[in-house]
Amino acid sequence: MKPIFCLLLPAVFLFNLAMAQPDNSLQVKISNGTLQGTFNPATNIRSFKGVPYAQPPVGDLRWKEPQPAANWTGVLKADHFSHMPMQKRMFSDMIFRADTMSEDCLYLNIWTPAKAAAEKLPVLVYFYGGGFVGGDGSEFRYDGESMATKGIVTITISYRLGIFGFFSHPELTKESPHNASGNYGLLDQTAAIRWVQANVAAFGGDPKRVTIAGESAGSIAVSAQMASPLAKNLIAGAIGESGAMIKPTLPAIPLSDGEKAGSAFMDKVNAKSLADLRAIPATQLLDMASKPGAFKLSATIDGYFLPKPVVDIFEAGEQAHVPLLVGWNSAEIPYQAFTGGDMPTPENYAAKVKQQFADKADEVLKLYPGNTQDEVIKSATALASDRFIAYATWKWADMQSKTGDKQVYRYLFSCPRPPEVTPNKAPAGKLPPAMIGASHASEIEFAMGNLAYDRVYAWTPAEYKVSATMENYFANFIKTGNPNGKGLPKWAPNTKDSHVKFININVDTKLENESDRARYLFLDKQYNK
């Protein structure tokens, strides 16, 4: 009779051999080679992180249109986030999972619920915000796993920022085959969409059902991608959260102006040629460009990515004719952004309005009245938020409903964050507190189903309810172009013939009629004379 350990040896050997073998269900073959992802048994979601969608934009490829990713042999492990783009740490609410920063940053991350390539699931491609100077696809709040559990192949991408993504110069324009320069970060996004079109079927996605989405600068980018002839025919839908490439919110400037700014920067850093600039190490170049007044970032009307201003493209009906879900938050920035350090008294508020609007002051005070301190705080919050980002987003929604031939679903997110888990013990200032409402970027975790990742705030069942509502609206829209679904308050769309409505997303989510159109029409005259 053999010893029992001898009988067990074959089983142990086979178990260890199985553990050492790659799981073929986690391997996906794409156009460039084979990827090995990871699997979360708790959610049944496969993920593939740090997937290259273009060549590293380094050396001679700095300030060039992204080039197709190189092929590889063997199996590429896609089990961790790759490098985040070059940036200064400017925003405290950005929590990255990428642990390195590099100019080599053109990677994307995929979460898929598909068990087979033939499932043809809808696809979401999400662009992060950060003013085109910060952000990364590895941020917790953009994590795609929750949205993937809704039956959506969810993708986040990273794109070039700041001086690396938006630098124009006459020499760059001259060397470009398109006689263009300056929109490299936006061209990165377009390249990622093209990559998705070519490869998402391998992950169970349908290239004909790709929705792009973004928040703040990411939302501005969505409006630009809708306007660009390079991207407008690659998407089936769009989602914008607070932002559009329309005055006064980071509008594109003429190429000649971008070139002048680039030439001025070259002079400031004592570079004699593009070769000199490209030879500067990335960290040093970032430091140079980050000095006050050294470099002003703008997209350009380059005749290639953007043939003319975004607002003109939408007004002419030349943008992507796809369904749009778009909105902004109820208190994007606090009243102090308009009133400054002054006490929010009616007298101080009226003086500030007269100082900034001159002969239009009386009209402004009718639209944004301030007869009591509470009313001043409310109106100054609205005026600051409108001029910061809400007006541009409204203009985008309004134009798309008139010329886009598809339904536009507009929202206002008004659910405030709860108190912090560890309250800030800083001494109270002399000014009254900001208006209670939803601040800029606070809706991201709600929309993507990621409240649990944000441990700063003491979330309650009420916020989780709001998150479930918003995420389901988004998921339904990505699937069908219509956010409505079972158990959700009805959301009526806007078209060129309809009375304007919007859904107010809060604990008591409900449909409301537009009541502040006069404000936006007034600002429209100021910015589009």
Q: What is the typical, i.e. mean, pLDDT?
A: 94
The share of residues in helices is 25-40%
How far is the first residue's CA from the last residue's CA? Answer: 97 Å
Oligomerization state: single chain
Structural class category: alpha/beta
Strand content: 15-25%
Q: What sort of overall outline do the alpha carbons produce when their principal axes are compared? A: globular
Radius of gyration: 25 Å
The count of strands amounts to: 16
Walk across the major sheet and give the strand order: 3-4-6-8-7-9-10-13-14-15-16
Largest sheet: 11 strands, mixed
Report on this structure:
The chain is an alpha/beta fold and 529 residues long. Helix content is 34%, strand content 15%. The chain has helices at residues 4-20, 145-148, 162-165, 170-175, 184-199, 217-227, 255-268, 274-279, 282-289, 310-315, 336-339, 346-357, 361-367, 373-403, 444-447, 461-480, 517-527; strands at 27-30, 33-36, 38-40, 45-52, 75-77, 107-112, 121-127, 153-157, 205-215, 237-241, 253-254, 300-301, 324-329, 408-413, 501-505, 510-513. The strands form three sheets. An eleven-stranded mixed sheet has the order 3-4-6-8-7-9-10-13-14-15-16, sandwiched between helices. A three-stranded mixed sheet has the order 1-2-5, with no helix packed on it. A two-stranded parallel ribbon has the order 11-12. Strand 15 (501-505) and strand 16 (510-513) form a beta hairpin. The model is unreliable at 1-22 (pLDDT under 50).
Give a short overview:
The protein is an alpha/beta fold. It contains 17 helices and 16 strands.
